[in-house]
Structures are given as C-alpha cells and as structure tokens.
Amino acid sequence: MQPPTWDLDLKFDFMDEHRAHPHKKISLKNIPTETEGPFEGKEHARAFTARAVADIQALQYRTFVEGKQSLLVVLQALDAGGKDGLIRKVLGRMNPQGCRTFPFKVPTSEELAHDFLWRIHAATPAAGKVSIFNRSHYEDVLIARVNDLVAKSVWKDRYKQINDFEDLLVQRGTKIVKIYLHISPGEQLERFKKRLDNPAKHWKLNAGDYATRERWGDYREAYEDVFEKCNSKHTPWYLIPADKKWYRDASVAAIIRKTFEEMDPQLPAVDVDVEEIRKLYERESAEQKD
Amino acid sequence: MQPPTWDLDLKFDFMDEHRAHPHKKISLKNIPTETEGPFEGKEHARAFTARAVADIQALQYRTFVEGKQSLLVVLQALDAGGKDGLIRKVLGRMNPQGCRTFPFKVPTSEELAHDFLWRIHAATPAAGKVSIFNRSHYEDVLIARVNDLVAKSVWKDRYKQINDFEDLLVQRGTKIVKIYLHISPGEQLERFKKRLDNPAKHWKLNAGDYATRERWGDYREAYEDVFEKCNSKHTPWYLIPADKKWYRDASVAAIIRKTFEEMDPQLPAVDVDVEEIRKLYERESAEQKD
Fold this sequence. Notes:
The structure is a homodimer. By secondary structure, chain A is an alpha/beta fold.
C-alpha cells in the first residue's frame, strides 16, 4: 500500500491564526486549547512538521552565515504544557553551533543580587545566532506575582522594563517570537497522571505540581496581563492550542519558519577569488596524478 | 520491494578498533583514512547510525536525570575533516537542554589575557550535562606550535598542563572522549573543490586553507605528539577513518553510545509518594466527572 501523499503547502496562516492581538486585553478562556487546524489528522501534521523543520534548518544556516540578524524564541507554559517536547521535536533540531537553549530555573543567589533582566540579557543571541528560552523573564511577572515573591510595586514596574529591554534587542537586529503553549486543566491532569505510570518521569514530580493547579486562575490572570502589556507589533505572542502535541509541533514549526522567511537572510559576498582558488586546486590535483 | 533488514547488533568493537594505544608513539601514516568496517555499505551504516543516535538520546536523558556524571566530547580535525557534519548528524542530536556545543575560535583578547585553559574550563559540563568541543585546548599545542604563536618553552609545558586538567575533570565524574577525524590530503582537496561549486559554502573559503595544506607534515607531527603525550586510560583518543562520511558518523555514534553504556546512568530514587499523588489525581478526575 502506498503511503498517502499529504498536501504540505498549506494556505493556512498559522501566524495570523494564533497571534495575540497587540496591546489588547484577551481572555484565555476564549482561546481554544485544542484544534486540528488545516490538518487531516496526526500523520498529516507530522509530515508537515518534518518538512518545516528541514526548511528551518536551511534558513538557520543562512542566518548563521549572514551573521547579522538574530532570533530569540521565548517559550512559556504552565507545568506539563509541553515545552520540553516542543524543544526536543522542533526547536532543538536547529544546528547547536548556532542555537542555544537556556532553561531558566529558580534564580541563584548571584542572579538575585542583580536586576531580574541581568541573567536574561547574558543569554540573548549574538548576530547570526538563535537563543531559545525555556521559561524566561516573564516568570518575573508570573510566578513572582502569583506567589508574592516580590512586592506588587516591584512587579508592576517590570512590564515597562521588559518592553524597553525587548525594544533594545529588536533595534539591534533581533527578531523576537514569544510562544505560549495553552493547555486545559483536564489535559494537564492527564499528563500528570501519565508521569505517575512512567518511572523515568518520576524525577519531574514534586509537591508543588498540585499547588500550581490550585492557582490556575491567578496564573491565567497574570498571563492575560502579559499578553496585553508586553505585546507590540515587533514583540509578538502566539497562543498555541497545545492539548494535541502534533498540532503544537506543527503550528510552532510553521511560525518559526515564517519568521525566518521574514528575516530573509542573505549569503554574504565573498572576498576571495573563487576562480583563482579553483586553478590552484586543479593544478595540485594534476600534480598528484603525475 | 521490501527494504533490506540490516543487522544492527554488530559484534564489531569500534572502541577497540579505533583507540589510540595509551602513552605510545603512533604514526598517522599507518592509520587508515578509509574503511567500511563491518558494514555492507552506506545504507547499512546509516541504519546503524540512526539506531545508535536513538540509543544515545535515551542514555543522555538518563544521565541528565541522574545528575551525577558528565560527558565531554573533544573533536579535532584538519580543515574539511568533517567536524560540522558529524555535529549536525550525530553529536548535535542530543537534547540541547542537557548538551551544549562550544566552537572554539581564535581566542579573544580577554581570553588571551588568561592562561590557555581558562576559557576551556568555563565550558566543561556540569553534573548531568554533555559538552561538545569543536576544536579545543589541543589547538594550543597544534596551531600554536605549527605557526609559532608561542615559544617552544611555552607549548612544551602544555602537555602536562592538559593532562593535569583532564585528570581533574575525570576525578570529578566527567567521562572524556577525544575524537580525531582522520582524512587523507586527497580527500581534503576534493572537499575544498566541492566548496567552490556551492555558493552557500563560499563563506568557508579563506586564503589560509591552502597554507594549512602546505604544513600537513608539521600538523601530523604535532598530532602524533598529542596522541602519545595526552592519552591515558581515562582520557582516550579515537582515530576515526573519516574519508567516508557514513563510516565516520556510524563509528563515532557507536563509540559515544558505548561510552554512555559504560557510564551506566541510574534513575534516582524519588522522594515523593507516588501512590499518594495518584489518589489525589484520581479524586480530582472523579470530581470533574460529577
């Protein structure tokens, strides 16, 4: 039996579909956590993702060689939202010589002795490079706010500080893409339960998992503020329906590919004389044959 | 037509085959740059590599979760030796959250203001992590020696400094694997010529390429000294016949897999009560259904 030949040149605009409207209050309750988009099912989406990842690899190579622009991907989600899976299957497939993943954890004492953007700034991508943030400076207006880690007067100032910081990056030539993986409370519970059945995942268990679930409403509110306050034309948030892993992977791959296409990296002019070098090599080849 | 089913459980010991004998003078001229090893051809080797990479990914995950041991892969070769391809196809396929690639270039002025191991030490893997060095501290006894970048009295001392440094890492719990990709002058010339035909590779061209070819003998001598002086039981060098890319990828994948197997990472005991958590989740699921 022949495998089906899928249409991989979809006319569907994933960016437009999932872009959170800039500067506008959104209600996460009205954003779906599950969709099949333009796909005929899981296998179709996986074939689409494989092609998109290959395109991303080629575009990343050109960006690296061009050596001018950078890409910063910010990844946020509640626990079990699928960040690690997305990195393993899509984002982490870029060439590691030009792409680095930063998992931001609880700040160290040295990091806490600086402003909250200090460790973030150090991780931003140089010209030609890509940085992927697994969690980010947004935790400083999410968990820090929900769990009262700092006073309200402190976290309230951070939205503008974040915007000023991201503008600096954009003006230097860094493209910013911010991804929120949106799952339902029911899906999170299912994923937590699956971890219990897999001993290799038990290290991920901790008593805080359940506490976070109880603060779901507070997190939703904090995220909604982020999507309103830190979301300009050049610093977009995409809200990805992530209950279906294959839709999550496909839609993010499509958005990253489109972002690279918009960057349109160009191979630089070469300052050596290719034909001169060719003659040199041909002569050497001929000598070896003598 | 059915695709052939290859034997992927080969009895061939790639480590033993390619290990440079510790503390012994070797002559690179006697080491083959081309072999097919136990493979029936390219497709067989590629199937083997795919399986080995999947095994490496699983073992890397266990090492990450265990959080005790580290792996350091040092990669050295002459130009066009295939380091970038090997990283793209094998080494760089590890999960980027636990694995980082460090391309060491010409030292910056800040790096030159320190001892030669300063920037290297900063890049060594933490517990649970993997570092891949694309070029390394060995350049400080290779290019630095061949091109007289430092006095002989300086580079002569470095062999012992390197050994002491690597011993420190090993004693902390870092496994070290050093890979030399061994190609012939003729194969290098072919690869240089191919670059001329591919505009996307022209950025790699530089006038130094040819100069390096003219110092081939000096480099060989410098490498032979490295393999004799910096090569103990716990800091092994593997000399990989790398004219055939598919053999290079397969043999290095086999060696990295075996290294992880020797590390034998263990999932840690969990300090939460899995059954208690299960009850909590089951109760919540039941409540949602009410």
